[in-house]
Amino acid sequence: MKELLENARWLDKADENVKEKLAWVSERSENKIPYTTVNGIHDDKSDSTVRYGQDDGINWWCNGFWPGMMWLMYSETGEGRYAQIARRAEEKLDCCFEEYYGLHHDVGFMWLPSAVADYRLTGDRDARRRGLHAANLLAGRFNIAGNFLRAWNDAKTPADTAGWVIIDSMLNIPLLYWAWEETNDPRFRHMAVAHANTVMKNFVRPDGSVRHIVEFDPETGIYRTDRGGQGYGQGSSWSRGQAWGMYGFVISYRHTGDTAYLDTAKRIAHYFIANIPEDGIIPVDFRQPEEPFWCDDTAAAIAACALIEISRAVDAQEQRMYLAPALRLL
Fold this sequence. Notes:
Layout: H1 2-28, E1 37-38, E2 41-42, H2 65-77, H3 80-99, H4 107-122, H5 125-139, E3 142-143, E4 148-149, E5 164-166, H6 174-183, H7 186-202, E6 213-216, E7 223-227, H8 239-256, H9 259-274, H10 297-313, H11 316-329
Antiparallel strand pairs: 1-2, 3-4, 5-6, 6-7
Helix pairs in contact: 2-3, 2-4, 3-4, 4-5, 4-6, 6-7, 8-9, 8-10, 9-10, 10-11
């Protein structure tokens, strides 16, 4: 009981802090699509005078996060100004559809928390159109030879990336599940499920650790190799990838009811939980050297979300196994 009360007090205070901070930040950055800060001031990925490269600028994969935060605030507070700020960002993101070049599989990250959240909360028809447009772009990346969604376009590497898939994709395919549920068009579900099955088979190791990049032959779909990607190296265990994996598979379970996805999410979760350091600070890679130490609080936040979702999908006896480490991470 004491622990429950302490958690409740902590959650109330955290909620209060988030509302206070975003009320202030939203005023300072209401006309931007921010990504990071420069000398304490948000940058603006929608600034047409700044070009970061083909896949950057307005096409940056994080550009749905800002309107997503605003929709969360709108949902929490009911204040219309948050909806206005979010819609302003959505209108700016229309440039991505017009330019086309630079868009990749992260259209899920870009339009799920923005347009799809808008439509779910308000029923706005323009938001629905944007979400379905993005879903069709994602569906267009499906390779029928290997049953996977191509990750990137011509990435900044001399290698041919036509057969590359990354674990992050598991947080993009919910856009396809939504399009299926919204339109009753089964092609979206078929592609999402086929891709999830390919990832489940080729990315998740027996111990529950997860690869970041897997390369397939784009002509035959045959597995070629895996790559370290953002992890320490080939064969390592990028912590954010673990989080993408467990979160993505439990979401796939929620949309399909396929218990193989829930079991996979749990297997990844058990590996993640077993590797949480004593101080609770999550490293960038669970197999990185001790020095220098690099941490990733984003991986911790994503993992906490995933563990909470898993706890909702299991019976009462199992719930604490996933909720306790989630709260610890938060």
